[in-house]
Design brief:
With 169 residues, the chain is mostly helical. It has one domain. Helix 1 packs across helix 2, helix 2 packs antiparallel against helix 3 and helix 6 runs antiparallel to helix 7. The longest helix has 27 residues.
Length: 169
Amino acid sequence: MTTRWSLVLAAGGGDSGVAGTAMEALCRDYWYPLYAFARRAGQGAQDAEDLVQGFFARCIEKAYLAAADEGRGRFRSFLLVAFKRYMAKEHDRSRAMKRGGKQTPLALDALTTEQRYALEPAETWSADRLYERRWALTLLERVLGRVEAEQAEAGKSVAFEALREFLGL
């Protein structure tokens, strides 16, 4: 499953209601992969959360997603490059500004982020490789949730739960 470019375009568009809904969906999909990237890149748990939240706030504020172009490659690559640039700029500003600044944190799955990160493989994977892995697993979790909902709607929840263990996820 690839990124729904209509969602990316809507998030970067001008209609604030549609853009907000689209941006919320993108934040939910990409928040943890970016958090895992920041952690693997050497950030502490709180700093990684702040970086991801600040990055998405900046994306909204500066309409960064309007620059995303399907013809130039994968959206997740675009987002990762933008996040790396954001992290570099924030590193430069970190000495002058206290953690959090004037921005209100955006809590997305905040209760389990560090618990999830603690389960990441101990291998010395690069932050880039971990980001790609987390994106793929997040995508699988989302798809599995959709299949589970479809099976429940069809009255096949019991069969789905019995077969779920064989999916290897």
